[in-house]
Every structure is written in C-alpha cells, then in structure tokens.
C-alpha cells in the first residue's frame, strides 16, 4: 500500500484517527493532573485550563477560556514578566518562575509560584505559554500596605512620555529596549484600563504618580 496516497487513503484515515485518539488521551491526562495548569497564547489569554486551575476560582475550565491570566493572578514583581515577553519575542525556550498571589471566592488571599514556559511545535510559529501553578499557602489578612499605582521605572517612563519624548528616547534615558518601554506602557494600560499615551499620562496625574506642580514632568515624591 502506498503511504503517499491522498487524504482519502486508508493510511491517511488511520493517521487521522490515531491523532484524535492521542488528543483525547492528552485532554484526559490534563484533566487528571493535580497541579493547576493552563495553556495561553503569546498575550497571556487562556486557551485551555485544567479543572485544578479552574477550581482555584470556583469555575469550570471552559469559563477561563479567553480570559487573560493577569486578570486572575497578581505578580509580586511586575519586572519578572519582562524576561517572559523577551523570551516570546526571541523564541527562547526556558522556564520562568513568577511569584504570584490571588484572591479566590473564599476571600482568603492565596500565594504561590507560577512556572511560565514558552513552547511551540514548529519553527517560526509564535510560542504558546504553559502555566503551572504551585500553591504555597494562604494569608488570613490582606497586606497592610497597598501596592503603589506605578513602579519607579513606570513613573519615569510616564514622566518622559508626558514631556513628549519618543519611545526610542525614553528607552535610551531609562536603559531599556524599545520593546521594554512598550511592555511597561502596555501593562499600565491594562492595569489602569485606559488606551493611548494621552490617557495614560492623564491617569498618572490623577493617581498622583506624576507631580502636577513640576515642569518638565517628574514622578511625584512618595507621600
């Protein structure tokens, strides 16, 4: 029998059935893994999650699909996400641990470590992100001090943006790449739920990130 026959050949039909069987086995294995696990696209949008991951939120796996992982988890340090963005851009293969916390429906804050691993099955194809969560414990009381609305590097980027500097000039001034500056601006837009630099700068003044009495713009002193 010629294995090079067209798509309707017995060999092709057998291959298709075997592929379906392996896919079903993989889904079954994913469903039975005790560790919370999710597969995301390059932007962090969840493609599939196992029941253990969905259980952290009292949801079904399908209810996580299409949501962004950062809608659920708070990284302890936003800077830990930057190497992941660079790895996706450069198609690097490595494991990136990120300390995270989250608030399940019980209201008791939980914390743990998220292993983020870029993977792809073909050269030139944008990698997906495999997220594996290790739950380390719970905090009965919330953190006494809220996180500032922007980090020092984010505040400096916003001050330069308010001055009208280009992305390239901002990158040179703060010692980042252009992609690094765009990464921080994107994270701020997501966190503050605004779009565009003008809105970001306006929001920065409203939140007290930038000093409204200074020109050229500078970050406000911590109160």
SSE arrangement:
Layout: H1 10-32, E1 37-40, E2 46-49, H2 51-55, H3 61-64, E3 74-75, H4 82-90, E4 96-102, E5 109-119, E6 128-139, H5 152-162, H6 167-174, H7 178-192, H8 197-206
Antiparallel strand pairs: 1-2, 1-6, 3-4, 4-5, 5-6
Walk me through the structure.
It is globular and about 75 Å long. β1 and β2 form a beta hairpin. The protein is α+β, with helices and mostly antiparallel strands and 223 residues long. The chain has a 6-stranded antiparallel beta sheet. The chain has 8 helices and 6 strands; from the N terminus they run αββααβαβββαααα. Helices cover 38% and strands 18% of the residues. α5 (152-162) runs antiparallel to α6, α5 (152-162) crosses α8 (197-206) and α6 crosses α7 (178-192).
Structural class: alpha+beta
Contiguous uncertain segments of 5+ residues: 1-6
Outline: globular
Main sheet properties: 6 strands, antiparallel
Order of helices and strands: HEEHHEHEEEHHHH
Rounded to the nearest angstrom, the distance between the terminal CA atoms is: 79 Å
Helical stretch tally: 8
Helix coverage percent? 25-40%
β-strand amount: 15-25%
> How many beta-strand elements?
6
Sheet with most strands: strand arrangement: 2-1-6-5-4-3
Please give the radius of gyration in angstroms.
Answer: 22 Å
Overall average pLDDT: 84
């Amino acid at each position: 029998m010629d294995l090079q026959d067209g798509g309707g050949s017995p060999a092709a039909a057998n291959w298709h059935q075997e592929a379906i069987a392996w896919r079903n086995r993989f889904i079954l294995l994913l469903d039975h893994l005790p560790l919370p696990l999710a597969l995301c696209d390059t932007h962090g949008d969840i493609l599939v999650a196992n029941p253990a991951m969905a259980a952290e939120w009292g949801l079904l796996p399908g209810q996580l699909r299409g949501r962004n992982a950062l809608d659920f988890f708070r990284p302890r340090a936003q800077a830990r996400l930057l190497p992941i963005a660079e790895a996706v851009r450069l198609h690097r293969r490595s494991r990136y641990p990120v300390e995270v916390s989250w608030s399940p429906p019980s209201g008791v804050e939980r914390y743990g470590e998220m292993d983020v691993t870029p993977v792809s099955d073909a050269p030139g194809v944008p990698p997906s992100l495999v997220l594996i969560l290790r739950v380390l414990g719970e905090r009965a009381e919330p953190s006494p001090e809220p996180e500032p609305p922007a980090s020092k590097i984010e505040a400096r980027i916003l001050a330069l943006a308010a001055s009208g500097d280009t992305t390239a000039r901002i990158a040179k001034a703060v010692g980042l790449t252009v992609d690094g500056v765009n990464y921080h601006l994107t994270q701020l837009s997501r966190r503050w739920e605004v779009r565009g630099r003008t809105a970001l700068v306006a929001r920065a003044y409203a939140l007290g990130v930038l000093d409204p009495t200074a020109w050229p713009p500078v970050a406000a002193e911590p109160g």
